[in-house]
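To: structure subgroup
Subject: Chain for Friday's discussion

All,

I'm putting the inputs and outputs inline so they're searchable in the archive.
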Amino acid sequence: MHARRLPRNVKLLSGLAIAVSAMACSPPLFAQVALTMSKSFVPSTVPVGGTLTTTMTVTITNPNGFAVTGIAFSDIYPAGLVADQVGAYTCSAGNATFNGSGWSLNNVTLGAGASCSVPMLMHASMSGEITNTTSQVTGTGVPAGGPASAILNAATPVQLQNFEVD
């Protein structure tokens, strides 16, 4: 018995159909999206000198459908911004450093769609707009995200004077 030979274009179309079918059945590849970072001061206006403090919060979010490891980010305080107390941060860091000039977290892991935050109780030591900007946030296998910035408005307290009336 003699095998019938198919024309070349039929062979190519048959091969293409097999390749498309294999792609449709294979698991999807995950898009690698940058981690997001936000920062805020609440309240955003305080008097100079620590009579009223503010909470600065930095939040990191993993928008990916998979966990990201090796996450690192930091914040160096600008002149006029003074840290009073580290809040209950929710980022699980392998290495966390907090000092008078800023902080850094390294080796953080965030699950798919998860976020974590670092709150700091702070006060202003000089008047004016104090802009605080974080580093970029990096993680293993994803593009760098951020940085994030926020402005604290620090006002010199008004001194009230007593006047005597005759």
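Points worth raising on Friday:
Residues 74 and 104 are 4 Å apart (CA to CA).
Confidence is low (pLDDT under 50) at residues 19-28.

D.
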